[in-house]
Design brief:
2,3-Dihydroxybiphenyl 1,2-Dioxygenase, domain 1, alpha/beta, four-stranded mixed beta sheet, homodimer, 8 strands, 17% helix, 123 residues
Chain lengths: 123, 123
Protein backbone atom coordinates (compact mmCIF):
# COMPACT_ATOMS: atom_id res chain seq x y z
CA UNK A 1 0.00 0.00 0.00
CA UNK A 2 1.25 3.46 -0.80
CA UNK A 3 2.16 5.01 2.56
CA UNK A 4 3.70 8.42 2.14
CA UNK A 5 5.72 10.91 0.18
CA UNK A 6 9.14 11.66 1.52
CA UNK A 7 10.74 14.89 0.51
CA UNK A 8 14.31 15.96 1.11
CA UNK A 9 14.77 19.30 2.87
CA UNK A 10 17.70 21.65 3.08
CA UNK A 11 17.08 22.64 6.69
CA UNK A 12 14.73 20.64 8.90
CA UNK A 13 13.80 23.41 11.34
CA UNK A 14 13.06 25.86 8.56
CA UNK A 15 10.96 23.33 6.66
CA UNK A 16 9.05 22.29 9.80
CA UNK A 17 8.34 25.96 10.50
CA UNK A 18 6.81 26.25 7.04
CA UNK A 19 4.73 23.06 7.11
CA UNK A 20 3.51 23.73 10.65
CA UNK A 21 3.17 27.49 10.91
CA UNK A 22 2.20 28.28 7.33
CA UNK A 23 0.52 25.09 6.13
CA UNK A 24 -1.17 24.27 9.44
CA UNK A 25 0.19 20.75 9.80
CA UNK A 26 1.31 19.21 13.07
CA UNK A 27 4.47 17.32 13.98
CA UNK A 28 3.79 13.61 14.39
CA UNK A 29 7.33 12.48 15.12
CA UNK A 30 10.94 13.54 14.78
CA UNK A 31 13.96 11.30 15.15
CA UNK A 32 17.58 10.71 14.21
CA UNK A 33 18.17 8.16 11.46
CA UNK A 34 21.55 6.61 12.10
CA UNK A 35 21.37 4.38 9.00
CA UNK A 36 21.73 7.33 6.63
CA UNK A 37 23.14 9.92 9.04
CA UNK A 38 19.96 11.92 8.77
CA UNK A 39 17.15 13.41 10.76
CA UNK A 40 13.53 12.75 9.95
CA UNK A 41 10.28 14.54 10.77
CA UNK A 42 6.76 13.46 9.89
CA UNK A 43 3.96 16.02 9.53
CA UNK A 44 0.24 15.55 9.04
CA UNK A 45 -2.64 17.99 8.63
CA UNK A 46 -4.65 18.77 11.78
CA UNK A 47 -7.80 17.49 10.07
CA UNK A 48 -6.32 14.28 8.66
CA UNK A 49 -5.11 13.36 5.20
CA UNK A 50 -1.80 11.79 4.19
CA UNK A 51 1.47 12.35 6.01
CA UNK A 52 4.55 13.98 4.55
CA UNK A 53 7.97 12.83 5.72
CA UNK A 54 10.77 15.40 5.72
CA UNK A 55 14.29 14.03 5.37
CA UNK A 56 17.36 15.98 6.29
CA UNK A 57 20.77 14.49 5.51
CA UNK A 58 23.59 15.77 7.68
CA UNK A 59 26.96 16.84 6.41
CA UNK A 60 28.94 13.68 5.81
CA UNK A 61 25.88 11.60 4.94
CA UNK A 62 26.29 9.87 1.61
CA UNK A 63 22.86 11.23 0.66
CA UNK A 64 23.87 14.83 1.35
CA UNK A 65 24.52 15.62 -2.29
CA UNK A 66 24.10 19.17 -3.63
CA UNK A 67 20.42 20.11 -3.61
CA UNK A 68 19.14 20.92 -7.07
CA UNK A 69 15.63 21.19 -8.42
CA UNK A 70 14.19 18.52 -10.68
CA UNK A 71 10.88 17.80 -12.36
CA UNK A 72 9.74 14.59 -10.66
CA UNK A 73 7.93 16.28 -7.82
CA UNK A 74 5.38 18.35 -9.68
CA UNK A 75 3.75 19.77 -6.55
CA UNK A 76 2.14 19.01 -3.20
CA UNK A 77 -1.57 19.82 -3.05
CA UNK A 78 -3.44 21.41 -0.13
CA UNK A 79 -7.16 22.03 0.15
CA UNK A 80 -8.17 25.23 1.94
CA UNK A 81 -11.74 25.61 0.74
CA UNK A 82 -13.47 28.59 2.30
CA UNK A 83 -10.28 29.56 4.13
CA UNK A 84 -8.59 30.14 0.77
CA UNK A 85 -8.40 33.96 0.79
CA UNK A 86 -7.54 34.15 4.45
CA UNK A 87 -4.81 31.55 4.05
CA UNK A 88 -3.15 33.42 1.19
CA UNK A 89 -3.27 36.65 3.13
CA UNK A 90 -1.68 35.00 6.19
CA UNK A 91 0.95 33.18 4.10
CA UNK A 92 1.90 36.49 2.49
CA UNK A 93 2.39 38.07 5.91
CA UNK A 94 4.71 35.18 6.79
CA UNK A 95 6.80 35.84 3.69
CA UNK A 96 5.27 33.32 1.31
CA UNK A 97 3.79 35.22 -1.60
CA UNK A 98 1.98 33.43 -4.41
CA UNK A 99 4.12 32.59 -7.42
CA UNK A 100 1.04 31.93 -9.58
CA UNK A 101 -2.65 32.70 -9.19
CA UNK A 102 -5.36 31.26 -11.41
CA UNK A 103 -8.90 32.57 -11.32
CA UNK A 104 -11.58 31.61 -13.80
CA UNK A 105 -15.37 31.56 -13.49
CA UNK A 106 -15.18 27.86 -12.58
CA UNK A 107 -11.93 27.53 -10.72
CA UNK A 108 -9.41 29.30 -8.52
CA UNK A 109 -6.11 28.16 -7.11
CA UNK A 110 -2.65 29.46 -6.35
CA UNK A 111 0.87 28.25 -5.87
CA UNK A 112 3.40 29.22 -3.25
CA UNK A 113 6.87 27.71 -2.80
CA UNK A 114 8.14 25.99 0.32
CA UNK A 115 11.63 26.81 1.71
CA UNK A 116 13.12 24.14 -0.57
CA UNK A 117 11.56 25.58 -3.71
CA UNK A 118 8.84 22.91 -3.85
CA UNK A 119 5.61 24.11 -5.47
CA UNK A 120 2.65 24.03 -3.08
CA UNK A 121 -0.84 24.13 -4.60
CA UNK A 122 -3.45 26.01 -2.60
CA UNK A 123 -7.04 25.26 -3.66
CA UNK B 1 -5.53 19.80 4.48
CA UNK B 2 -2.73 18.07 2.64
CA UNK B 3 -4.44 16.19 -0.21
CA UNK B 4 -1.93 14.50 -2.44
CA UNK B 5 1.46 14.33 -4.04
CA UNK B 6 1.57 15.09 -7.71
CA UNK B 7 4.50 13.80 -9.67
CA UNK B 8 5.42 14.65 -13.22
CA UNK B 9 5.85 11.71 -15.59
CA UNK B 10 7.63 11.37 -18.91
CA UNK B 11 5.05 9.02 -20.42
CA UNK B 12 1.64 8.55 -18.84
CA UNK B 13 0.90 5.07 -20.17
CA UNK B 14 4.28 3.75 -19.14
CA UNK B 15 4.00 5.25 -15.66
CA UNK B 16 0.46 3.95 -15.20
CA UNK B 17 1.63 0.50 -16.22
CA UNK B 18 4.25 0.68 -13.47
CA UNK B 19 2.03 2.01 -10.69
CA UNK B 20 -0.81 -0.38 -11.58
CA UNK B 21 0.90 -3.56 -12.74
CA UNK B 22 4.00 -3.45 -10.57
CA UNK B 23 2.90 -1.44 -7.52
CA UNK B 24 -0.62 -2.87 -7.41
CA UNK B 25 -2.47 0.44 -7.44
CA UNK B 26 -5.69 1.09 -9.32
CA UNK B 27 -6.68 3.91 -11.66
CA UNK B 28 -9.13 6.27 -9.99
CA UNK B 29 -9.50 8.76 -12.83
CA UNK B 30 -7.81 9.98 -15.98
CA UNK B 31 -8.58 13.19 -17.83
CA UNK B 32 -7.26 15.89 -20.13
CA UNK B 33 -6.24 19.12 -18.45
CA UNK B 34 -6.80 21.89 -20.97
CA UNK B 35 -5.50 24.60 -18.61
CA UNK B 36 -1.92 23.35 -18.85
CA UNK B 37 -2.15 21.23 -22.00
CA UNK B 38 -1.64 18.11 -19.98
CA UNK B 39 -3.12 14.77 -19.13
CA UNK B 40 -3.68 13.64 -15.58
CA UNK B 41 -4.18 10.25 -13.93
CA UNK B 42 -4.86 9.53 -10.29
CA UNK B 43 -3.88 6.20 -8.74
CA UNK B 44 -4.59 4.76 -5.31
CA UNK B 45 -3.64 1.49 -3.63
CA UNK B 46 -6.26 -1.27 -3.73
CA UNK B 47 -6.33 -1.35 0.08
CA UNK B 48 -6.51 2.40 0.65
CA UNK B 49 -3.90 4.97 1.60
CA UNK B 50 -3.12 8.28 -0.09
CA UNK B 51 -3.54 8.95 -3.79
CA UNK B 52 -0.75 9.84 -6.19
CA UNK B 53 -1.50 12.12 -9.12
CA UNK B 54 0.52 11.61 -12.30
CA UNK B 55 0.92 14.65 -14.53
CA UNK B 56 1.93 14.44 -18.14
CA UNK B 57 2.57 17.66 -20.04
CA UNK B 58 2.13 17.42 -23.78
CA UNK B 59 4.54 18.79 -26.33
CA UNK B 60 3.85 22.50 -26.54
CA UNK B 61 2.72 22.80 -22.93
CA UNK B 62 4.62 25.52 -21.13
CA UNK B 63 5.29 22.99 -18.36
CA UNK B 64 6.89 20.50 -20.76
CA UNK B 65 10.42 21.51 -19.87
CA UNK B 66 13.30 19.02 -20.14
CA UNK B 67 12.92 16.32 -17.49
CA UNK B 68 15.84 16.23 -15.12
CA UNK B 69 16.24 14.65 -11.73
CA UNK B 70 16.34 16.75 -8.57
CA UNK B 71 16.54 16.10 -4.87
CA UNK B 72 13.20 17.41 -3.60
CA UNK B 73 11.35 14.15 -4.03
CA UNK B 74 13.36 11.84 -1.82
CA UNK B 75 11.17 8.79 -2.42
CA UNK B 76 7.66 7.35 -2.40
CA UNK B 77 7.08 4.71 0.27
CA UNK B 78 5.11 1.48 -0.11
CA UNK B 79 4.34 -1.07 2.58
CA UNK B 80 4.32 -4.69 1.45
CA UNK B 81 4.63 -6.46 4.78
CA UNK B 82 4.54 -10.22 4.42
CA UNK B 83 4.31 -9.92 0.62
CA UNK B 84 7.77 -8.32 0.62
CA UNK B 85 9.80 -11.17 -0.89
CA UNK B 86 7.12 -12.14 -3.34
CA UNK B 87 6.74 -8.54 -4.47
CA UNK B 88 10.46 -8.12 -5.15
CA UNK B 89 10.54 -11.35 -7.09
CA UNK B 90 7.56 -10.29 -9.23
CA UNK B 91 8.94 -6.77 -9.75
CA UNK B 92 12.22 -8.27 -10.93
CA UNK B 93 10.37 -10.42 -13.47
CA UNK B 94 8.69 -7.26 -14.77
CA UNK B 95 12.05 -5.58 -15.26
CA UNK B 96 12.30 -3.62 -12.04
CA UNK B 97 15.30 -4.86 -10.16
CA UNK B 98 16.24 -3.48 -6.75
CA UNK B 99 18.74 -0.64 -6.79
CA UNK B 100 19.44 -1.01 -3.06
CA UNK B 101 18.65 -3.71 -0.50
CA UNK B 102 19.07 -3.26 3.22
CA UNK B 103 18.84 -6.16 5.61
CA UNK B 104 19.72 -5.97 9.27
CA UNK B 105 18.56 -8.03 12.25
CA UNK B 106 15.91 -5.39 12.97
CA UNK B 107 14.97 -4.08 9.55
CA UNK B 108 14.71 -4.90 5.89
CA UNK B 109 13.74 -2.73 2.94
CA UNK B 110 14.62 -2.17 -0.70
CA UNK B 111 14.42 0.47 -3.35
CA UNK B 112 13.40 0.14 -6.96
CA UNK B 113 13.07 3.00 -9.47
CA UNK B 114 9.91 3.92 -11.35
CA UNK B 115 10.04 4.66 -15.12
CA UNK B 116 10.84 8.30 -14.33
CA UNK B 117 13.78 7.45 -12.12
CA UNK B 118 11.83 8.12 -8.91
CA UNK B 119 13.02 6.05 -5.94
CA UNK B 120 10.33 3.70 -4.60
CA UNK B 121 10.81 2.31 -1.11
CA UNK B 122 9.54 -1.21 -0.55
CA UNK B 123 9.18 -2.17 3.11
Amino acid sequence: MFMSTRIRVKNLDESLKFYIEVMGMKLKERYQNDVNNGEVAVVVSEDGGPEIELNYYKEGSKFNEPYSGGQELDHLAFWLGKDYDNFLSEARKKGYDTVLEVKSPTNRYSFIKDPNGIFILIA
